[in-house]
Amino acid sequence: TSSNVLEQFRMTGKVVVVTGAADGIGYAVSEAMAEANAYVVLWYNSNDTAIAKANRLSKIHGVKTSAYKVDISNPLEVQDGIQKVVTDFGRIDVFIANAGMAISKPILEQTLEEYRKQMSVNVDGVLLCAKYVGEVFKHQGTGNLIITSSMSAHIVNVPTDQPVYNATKAFVTHFGKSLAREWRDFARVNIVSPGFFDTKMGASPSAINEAYRMAVLGRQGHVKEIKGIYLYLASDASTYTTGSDVIVDGGYVL
Ligand code: NAI
């Protein structure tokens, strides 16, 4: 590792997979990785603009990119997706488990199906990605997993109607920290906990209003304001950082 800090942030030759990469935070992070000269594989589920976005990043930044359709809650699709990255790119240096979803309703109004849906994407999805990419990391003897959790793993934010979502995020935060210890010989694992960001998920009037009311900075974050955190964790600038949880919330949880 170079002692020059700008060199440490350079991702040249590294293969990075991002889930939920067609939208919001996932696309901003994919862009960050391409800007830093990494090879980027954008995983998407329903939004197939990911294909055009991957091509665009390749063209603008001169790096190899790809887009794969993978439902992270499906074990076979995750296994195949990981295998395909290894076949196409030769290795996986960084895996960013970012995809997630929320159904915002009081628990007394949520159906069991709605509960299961959130669990299957936010909990099973992250676990499956970690499990199968962990095999690759172990085989390589090196790896880097970054999990997008939420400030709602730390506090019960307003609006309140997200009990299942909040609990899924508490799960992945503690799961990630546990993996940091389990995988200490071959991979780093870190967590990012965003506050309210201006994505599809953060678009509700109540989220915008609560960010205005509760964040110290008095507003939502723009996705460009979280790119550097992921680049720090993905790059050699953070080689001594594992098991950490970076809160990026404009001061909401203070
Ligand atoms: P978004 O809704 O814009 O993007 C989420 C992405 O996940 C979408 O591309 C969607 O297609 C994908 N996805 C959903 N289910 C999937 C599945 N089964 N398989 C594969 N992909 C799937 O939301 P945003 O804000 O970019 O969210 C990214 C992450 O950040 C999520 O984990 C979310 O929980 C987290 N987060 C977002 C906050 C915000 O205010 N925007 C606050 C805290 C955390």
Please, could you describe this protein's structure?
The relative contact order is 0.15. The protein is 44% helix and 14% strand. The model has no long low-confidence stretch (mean pLDDT 96). The longest helix is centred in the middle third of the chain and has 29 residues, at 112-140. The chain is built from eight helices and seven strands. With 254 residues, it is of the alpha/beta class. It has a single domain (5-248), classed as Rossmann fold (3-Layer(aba) Sandwich), CATH 3.40.50.720. A seven-stranded parallel β-sheet has the order 3-2-1-4-5-6-7, with helices on both faces. It binds 1,4-dihydronicotinamide adenine dinucleotide. 1,4-dihydronicotinamide adenine dinucleotide binds next to helix 2 and helix 5.
Features:
about 250 residues, alpha/beta, Rossmann fold, about 45% helix
Q: Report how far the terminal alpha carbons are from each other.
A: 35 Å
Let me know the average pLDDT. 96
Q: What is the CATH class name? A: Alpha Beta
* Physical arrangement of strands within the biggest beta sheet: 3-2-1-4-5-6-7
The biggest sheet, with number of strands, parallel, antiparallel or mixed sense and barrel status, is: 7 strands, parallel
Q: How many separate domains? A: 1
CATH topology: Rossmann fold
Q: What Rg do the Cα atoms give?
A: 17 Å
SSE sequence, one letter per element: HEHEHEHEHEHEHHE
Q: How many helical elements?
A: 8
Low-confidence segments? none
Q: Give the number of DSSP strands.
A: 7
Shape: globular
Task: Give the CATH superfamily.
Answer: NAD(P)-binding Rossmann-like Domain
Percent range of helical residues? 40-55%
